[in-house]
Amino acid sequence: MTVLLFTPNYNQSVIKNLVTMISEEDFDVSKEGQVEIIGWLYQYYNSEPKDEAFKKKKYDSSEIPAVTQLFTPDWIVKYLVENSLGRYWIRVLHARGDKRSASEIASNFAWKYFMPEAKQEQDLAQPEFAEKKVEAITFDDPAMGSGHILIYAFEVFLQIYESEGYSRRDAAKSVVENNLHGFDIDRRAFQLTYFAVMMKFRAENRRALRLDLRPNVFEVPTTGLTLADFGIEKDTNKQITKNLAELLANFKNAKELGSLLDFSTVQLNDELINSIVSTKRVGQLSFDESQSLEHHNELSKLIAVGTALQNRYVINVTNPPYMGSGKMPSILSRFVSKHYPASKSDLFAAFIERLHGMTDEDGLFAMITQHQWMFLSSFKALRERMMNWPIINMAHLGTRAFEEIGGEVVQTTAFVIQKHPESEYVGTYERLVNFDSQSKKQKAYLEAVKTPSLNYVYRTNQTNFEKIPGSPVAYWVPENVFEKFQNSPSISDFLFAGVGIQTGNNLRFLRRWYEVSFQNIKFNACDAIDFARASKKWAPISKGGPYRKWFGNLEYVINWENNGNEIKQHLGASKQKAIVPNEQFYFHSGFTWSDITSGKFSMRLLLPGMLFESNALSAFSKQKNISDRYLMGFANSTVGNYLLSILNPTIHMKSGYFLNLPVSRSAQEPNITEKVRQNIVLCHVDWNLDERSWGFKWDLLVSCIAEHNRASPTKSLHFKVICDKYVPTMQGGCVNG
Predict the structure, then answer these.
(1) Of 118, 278, 401, 631, which has the maximum CB count within 10 A?
(2) Is pLDDT above 80 for 512?
(3) Are strands 412-418 and 391-398 parallel, antiparallel or unpaired?
(4) What keywords is this UniProt entry annotated with (predicted)?
(5) Residues 85, 315: Cα–Cα separation, whole Å
């Protein structure tokens, strides 16, 4: 079936938009415009299947290319290539005795996104680099998409070759033949990259299309071949067939696994494989012989891709696919869990490990990924593995690094890593998270290149990260704060913290307090026994809510009749029972905060007699030698917020991060405790002025009106169950909490 990429209608189609809305300059080959056009067209083509796939809880294998396609902005491509390939070549020149600084060399090549390394205490000279030849510098993109990164690398290679005395025509031939490599699971992406590389080659060498030269870019294929297709019987010695069987097994699901496949344990030129591939057939072929020839040809292609995936490359650069473990197809999920256990939480993290494995010992790799791996506990094992991988440079982009992705959810970081470990290496980090658009981030980065002393440029040794629990990549933290984490007690010494009830169906089991009979709510229960004695159905529950410190966000009640038996027996949509953890703390006084917040951390009092839901993390005192009110004040302070943002600067604040908060003791503890108590009282009064509070009596303005001028008593709105529906009814007077 033929699929039309675009509606063949000039007046109402993308073709018209291409011609009328995109400037002619963007199609200019000399300015690399065509490469960007190809990339944007590819992303446009994938937009509809991507939107459909995003609606699903779990992706199908065929949807992986669409949902993981994201065109990399041009300036980020240049950052990645110049700081990896460009940096490597500068090291070669320095090893040869070039006395110019790295900045001077980069300026000579017009690499304006190159950031020089920080000054190092130890000598990092690599004299063996003096023997390096440009022809031997292999460059790979294992998730190449439409080839944007490879095409810019092509241009940088041309510059290097020219500086070595090559003509651009001969340089282009050598780049295609020796330097560039790439992989993708999507055939259309492979075709676009192949086309882009050949057009770049043709622009420099008129004989390009007549040369018998194929770019080293590959579609990672899948196969249904088995040993039987090569006439191998089941009872054949497994030692003889081991490599062939493993090769075929690896490619069975290659359309899902792509470059994550590692053939390092497979001998691809063993006696059996060589004998099959080298078999010649001449003359007229029978049907069986013709089919056998097809199998042999397919095997040859598999060996070519397997060999390319088996190789190591001097430079690896990519924008990998992003896909959380919960969305992965089952085959991909099992493979990542088995082969990349430290990074199984997201596909991009598995590619971080894979690129490290695909890089030569003296090489570099560069990526742009989501920044979760820097902070979240689910990536702690990966961070521990990376502790000996020197981060040469990082441009921490945060949100809005991609114009087509808005909001605060997708936060990214671009970085360059050296394969060879250097325990004392000092990396350079550009903190661009506070610049709120792609263009502002680009401008800020270029300013940092010109003026490395700007206050958003940081330099630190990675070993400092180990001083903070969980080893987050907190490069912006001053030395004295690292010491505080290392030498201070954590709040876990004084408080227990945990998650609350996950009902599986809040619409069924939770209500706002004014939606149920007020007489059927039990407030101030001492414990579960006291609640049961009251014979009430509803108990107040904390459910998170917006930013609010000290007191408030108390609007919900939960069906806790018969000790929550109906909830505990409920099966959710996934056929799993509700989760009711930390039940020993129910009805106890404590503190609570919202799991998700895009602003500052805010802790509130959890009243006695209340429960807490999964979106309202809660903490309870376990020691009496320090005031729990003092701990609450410290967590709500500017210092507490700063320290918590180091532990986890994402929009989530799980209990594990909170418990790692280092606590400062103070001689002013009694005074601070009293101030916290006063804040709680004031915010309690303030909350009760809101009609959402069950303690609401009257509006503050009403109390300022003379009694004889006041309107009749306020009518409060209640709901009664009539015919299985909640029907609003009016009752005189105000609710008394």
Answers:
(1) 401
(2) yes
(3) antiparallel
(4) Methyltransferase, S-adenosyl-L-methionine, Transferase
(5) 6
Tokens of 296: 């042999």
Which residues face 497 on adjacent strands?
Answer: 619
As a whole number of angstroms, the distance between CA 675 and CA 681 comes to 10
Q: Give me the sheet containing 538-542, strands edge to edge.
A: 510-512, 556-559, 538-542, 611-612
Q: How far apart are the first and last CA of the chain?
A: 69
Structure token pair of residue 226: 């088995």
Stretch 687-698: mean pLDDT: 86
Helices (H), 165-252: 168-174, 187-204, 238-252
With a cut of 50, say whether residue 115 has pLDDT above it: yes
> 228: helix, coil or strand?
helix
Cβ-based neighbour number of residue 486 at 10 Å: 13
Residue 479 has pLDDT above 60, yes or no: yes
Confidence of residue 46 (pLDDT cuts 50, 70, 90): low
Specify whether the CB–CB gap between 160 and 106 falls below 8 A.
no
> What tens digit of pLDDT does each residue of 368-379 get?
999 999 999 899
- Do the beta carbons of residue 566 and residue 501 sit within 8 Å? no
CA 103/CA 671 separation, integer angstroms: 55
Hey, what amino acid is at 184?
D
Closest CA relative to residue 559, chosen from 609, 522, 614, 605:
522
Per DSSP bridges, beta strands 359-370 and 412-418 are antiparallel
Dmax (CA) for the chain in angstroms is: 114
Q: Are 497 and 658 in contact (CB under 8 A)?
A: yes
Band (291; pLDDT cuts 50, 70, 90): confident
Using CA atoms, how far apart are residues 404 and 47, in angstroms rounded to an integer?
11
Mean pLDDT of 167-175: 95
One-letter amino acid of 326 = G
Contact 416, 118 (CB under 8 A): no
- pLDDT, mean over the chain: 85
Higher pLDDT, 492 or 666: 492
Q: How many whole angstroms separate alpha carbon 715 and alpha carbon 732?
A: 5
Partner residues linked to 541 by β-bridges: 556, 611
Q: What is the pLDDT of residue 704?
A: 65
Three-state SS letters, 666-704: CCCHHHHHHHHHHHHHHHHHHHHCCCCCCCCCCCCCHHH
State the residue for tokens 């903070």: 468
DSSP assignments along 495-528, one per residue: EEEE--BB-S-HHHHEEEGGGS-GGGB--S-SSH
Of how many residues is the chain composed? 737
> 654 vs 121, 183, 505, 659, CA distance in Å?
38, 38, 21, 9
Between helices 238-252 and 271-278, what is the axis angle to 10°? 70
What pLDDT score was predicted for residue 179? 97
Per-residue tokens: 383:
């961070």
At 672, the amino acid letter reads I
Q: In degrees to the nearest 10, what's the CA dihedral of 312, 335, 368, 157?
A: 20
Residue environment code for 686-705, b if the CB has 16+ CB neighbours within 10 A, otherwise e: ebbeeeebbebeeeeeeeee
Give 556's strand partners: 512, 541
Could you give the domains of the chain?
240-306 (no CATH), 493-682 (3.90.220), 697-737 (no CATH)
Rounded CA separation 212/202 (Å): 13
* Gyration radius of the chain over CA positions: 32
pLDDT tens readout for residues 560-582 = 999 999 999 887 666 678 899 99
